[in-house]
Amino acid sequence: MSAILQGAGAGAAAALTPFNSIDSNKFVAPSRSSLSVRSKSYIVAGSDDGTNKSFGSSSLIARRSQPLMIPNAVTATKADTAASSTSLKSGHELLLYEALQEGLEEEMDRDPHVCVMGEDVGHYGGSYKVTKGLADKFGDLRVLDTPICENAFTGMGIGAAMTGLRPIIEGMNMGFLLLAFNQISNNCGMLHYTSGGQFTIPVVIRGPGGVGRQLGAEHSQRLESYFQSIPGIQMVACSTPYNAKGLMKAAIRSENPVILFEHVLLYNLKESIPDEEYICNLEEAEMVRPGEHITILTYSRMRYHVMQAAKTLVNKGYDPEVIDIRSLKPFDLHTIGNSVKKTHRVLIVEECMRTGGIGASLTAAINENFHDYLDAPVMCLSSQDVPTPYAGTLEEWTVVQPAQIVTAVEQLCQ
Amino acid sequence: MALSRLSSRSNGIARPFSAAFNRFISTDTTPITIETSLPFTAHLCDPPSRSVESSSQELLDFFRTMALMRRMEIAADSLYKAKLIRGFCHLYDGQEAVAIGMEAAITKKDAIITAYRDHCIFLGRGGSLHEVFSELMGRQAGCSKGKGGSMHFYKKDSSFYGGHGIVGAQVPLGCGVAFAQKYNKEEAVTFALYGDGAANQGQLFEALNISALWDLPAILVCENNHYGMGTAEWRAAKSPSYYKRGDYVPGLKVDGMDAFAVKQACKFAKDHALEKGPIILEMDTYRYHGHSMSDPGSTYRTRDEISGVRQERDPIERIKKLVLSHDLATEKELKDMEKEIRKEVDDAIAKAKDCPMPEPSELFTNVYVKGFGTESFGPDRKEVKAALP
């Protein structure tokens, strides 16, 4: 069957359709006909006050037409193995870190207020080469090599943002940002509120995290769980070159502080991305593989483990729907909800720790909002609550492996 | 206290006894030279001269504003005891000279950032009494809409960056503001204020290192009131010379109870920062109240010490003596001024008391920036996608 791609189209302004029209109806007919009962309503809730808890239906709110905004290119084929987004138009191939660099460079060209600060981002080119070449192009005042003082330079980035600059603060490894937790929590997240709206903090805090190849416990941390409760910030996790560039650009343009989580092992992923400019929506989840039997929610590196497991599952006759949630705060309960209403089973696969991780919050959110639609309890596969060991075999068992995902799906779909 | 009489006061003012004192404030700008009480102590730089240029207008302005600040803080004390102000309330009485002297030396384009003892600095930056009392009582008309409280006063249009609760965290923020000033090529400086307690924070030295490295126009001002809450400075710091702590960064020690010394030092610091990079100022000052309203302030120091400072070094008394010795106003006129100030503060409090509390919907506003499609209702979002520009 042909792959239906919704991607970069000419006259994108007119072609923009809201995301929820990418229905699985367009693809293979559902194997369970009983599904058709519930899946059609569009969930559009007016949201003027914080107490609106019911799903009312109102007119579909069309996206503001932005000539440069291209909706996510969605991969459709069931037989898709690698979860990559491709576009119809000719694009160029690059690695994920190059995509981040491209996004960064385009935004720095576009807005002179954007600057980068971090350790070794300038002359060295960035420890993961994300900022390579930028110091030569933009100079030392816009690509700033800082000494090793996360607390201070994060604070400085936030102070600069209060005046209107748009700094991008890089933590060489996300784990180092624990030293700047006070600045991120109290100043970055809360200043907009405590000043009664006077100051905005348009910073982007980014860096690689996650379990790598035997990097040791302190360099394999997943900070999503620690930051998720901070009010006032947004968190996104990129997983492909396409969404890396899109999310980087969206994060820089956002007036809110955004924490962009990258993964150490994903920097060398190769993909073809469009030549023309595009931005990804910060609060939106990405439909990686539509399906019917079960919803698998994942983000960052685990997406690839899930897709690998999906291959096995398809061979065994299952039809999983895989969604890369991308937005860790706030959750895109719209996309997730639609999926749950279709499949009635949820499996969350994440790299965060079991206790108090993103999966834990997501489980609670799904149970609270979509309880009626669930046929089975929400299952969450997370990393073990242990410091990441050095030995390769042990490290492998700290994170979720595809075989565990297959077993979990089989268990849920009994 | 050494005073030098002005030798050339050109317009002799003929004063009819019944004249209202307002006339002095509005008209007379004859220069007066005042000598600071103590010489400056310098570290790695040449101290500025002890003679400060001032004018009668400025002297009376100083007196009036400092008396206003003093009255405001004492009124806040009573409001706190009446349980109209809750939580933490850190009062600045005794330290007014620092706020006043600094304001006199700089413009509204220069930024000030301080910690939680921010009521008077906010006032100095142009805030109104109504905003202060409303914010302290959590009302809508407060400068942060009632959502910040005593420790979170901000005024963006006068470059006052707050108002921060966590000790020391404002210094890297201040250096960031200085960085932005350099980036945007504004000829302005940032004063980052902190206390003797915060002087032991590591992030201060981190920020100072970066500021010195990148030549940022940052001025770090240590308001040394000798007590970090209940801990005296000799029990907390091995080296009590906070102005020398910068090591390779020049420093200046200033008598913080003398508004003119503060003014001279801040002017000097601004010129230095614009040319040569960061500098540290240590203001030797004192607070009469305890650390905050929950601290009586007498368990770690004697009442004699407090009253001693009040008698010998009180900043308002000093200005008052200067005003009287220069014949700018009579005792009675100054007393009338104080009465008027008292009434002004009482009126502001009454007006603030009438102000409504914030609407319940305000709980959810300003968490994220509105108008950019993101609205916050907690992590459970029930609305359609946000659009970004």
Write the layout of secondary structure elements.
The complex is a heterodimer of chains A (414) and B (389).
Chain A lengths: L11 H4 L75 E5 H15 L3 E5 L15 H5 L4 E3 L4 H14 L2 E5 L10 H9 L1 H4 L9 E6 L14 H4 L6 E4 L3 H13 L4 E6 L6 E5 L11 E4 L4 E5 L3 H14 L4 E5 L2 E3 L3 H11 L2 E8 L4 H13 L8 E5 L8 H7 L3 H11 L2
Chain B lengths: L21 H6 L3 E5 L5 E3 L7 E5 H26 L14 H10 L5 E3 L5 H6 L4 H8 L33 H14 L6 E6 L6 H13 L3 E7 L2 E2 L2 E2 H4 L14 E5 L3 H18 L2 E6 L18 H11 L1 H11 L5 H24 L35
Parallel strand pairs in B: 4-5, 5-6, 6-10, 9-10
Antiparallel strand pairs in B: 1-3, 2-9, 7-8
Helix pairs in contact in B: 2-3, 2-11, 2-12, 3-9, 5-12, 6-7
Rg of Cα set of chain A: 21 Å
Major sheet size, sense and barrel closure of chain A: 7 strands, mixed
How helical, in percent, are the residues of chain B? 25-40%
Name the beta content range of chain B: 5-15%
Main β sheet profile of chain B: 6 strands, mixed
The secondary-structure class of chain A comes to: alpha/beta
The shape of chain A is globular
